[in-house]
């Protein structure tokens, strides 16, 4: 598989109750490709608070313990907002393959956030494939990335 992430490290994945079924599907999908996942939960469809799962995924990516991250919730917004509180994170809300590609090419995103209530499971798999296979273009985009941090 052509990828621009170090897949010798696990992929960090987490979700709230709305994303639980998709998370389970994505873990199976990635493991079938021979990739390892670090599952930060949740572990059922019972109602939970998404920050409890988004923060550990973001921390693992930020510390370099994970190749990249995948977060899921109903709208994708809650997990994206939470993950982006971490200085080393660029979490992108994606609901299609083109957005997944642009998030990597232009924003060097290191976490893909998927709105489980607005995409189909098969489309989530395709978006993750595109996210993994797309590299950062650099150039004029690098200058913009450097201006993102508040620290």
Architecture overview:
The chain has 151 residues and is of the alpha/beta class. It has a single domain, classed as Ribose 5-phosphate Isomerase B, Chain: A (3-Layer(aba) Sandwich), CATH 3.40.1400.10. It is 42% helix and 14% strand. The chain contains 6 helices and 5 strands. The protein has helices spanning 20-32, 51-62, 77-83, 97-107, 121-133, 140-146; strands at 11-15, 37-39, 69-73, 91-93, 111-115. Strands 2-1-3-5-4 form a 5-stranded parallel beta sheet, sandwiched between helices. Strand 1 (11-15), helix 1 (20-32) and strand 2 form a beta-alpha-beta unit. The longest helix has 13 residues, at 20-32. The radius of gyration is 14 Å and the shape is globular. It starts with 10 loop residues before the first strand and ends in a 5-residue tail after the last helix. The model has no long low-confidence stretch (mean pLDDT 94).
Mean pLDDT: 94
CATH topology: Ribose 5-phosphate Isomerase B, Chain: A
Distance from first to last alpha carbon: 36 Å
Elements, N to C (H/E): EHEHEHEHEHH
CATH architecture: 3-Layer(aba) Sandwich
Q: What fraction of the residues are assigned to beta strands by DSSP?
A: 5-15%
Q: Characterize the largest beta sheet: strand count, sense, and whether it forms a barrel.
A: 5 strands, parallel
The number of helical elements comes to 6
Q: Which runs of at least 5 residues are low in confidence (pLDDT < 50)?
A: none
Domain count, please report it.
Answer: 1
- Structural class by helix and strand composition: alpha/beta
CATH class: Alpha Beta
- Helix proportion: 40-55%
Gyration radius over CA: 14 Å
> Looking at the structure, what is the overall shape?
globular
Strand tally is 5
Strand order of the largest sheet: 2-1-3-5-4
Q: Let me know the CATH homologous superfamily.
A: Sugar-phosphate isomerase, RpiB/LacA/LacB
């Amino acid at each position: 598989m052509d990828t621009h992430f170090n897949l010798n490290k696990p992929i960090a994945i987490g979700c709230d109750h709305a994303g639980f079924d998709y998370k389970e599907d994505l873990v199976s999908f990635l493991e079938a490709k021979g990739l390892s996942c670090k599952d930060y939960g949740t572990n059922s469809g019972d109602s939970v608070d998404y920050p409890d799962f988004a923060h550990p995924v973001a921390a693992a990516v930020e510390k370099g313990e994970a190749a990249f991250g995948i977060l899921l919730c109903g709208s994708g917004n809650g997990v994206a907002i939470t993950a982006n509180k971490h200085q080393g994170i660029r979490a992108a809300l994606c609901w299609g393959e083109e957005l997944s590609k642009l998030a990597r090419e232009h924003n060097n995103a290191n976490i893909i956030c998927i709105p489980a209530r607005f995409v189909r499971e098969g489309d989530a798999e395709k978006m993750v494939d595109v996210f993994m296979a797309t590299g950062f273009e650099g150039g004029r985009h690098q200058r913009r990335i450097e201006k993102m941090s508040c620290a």
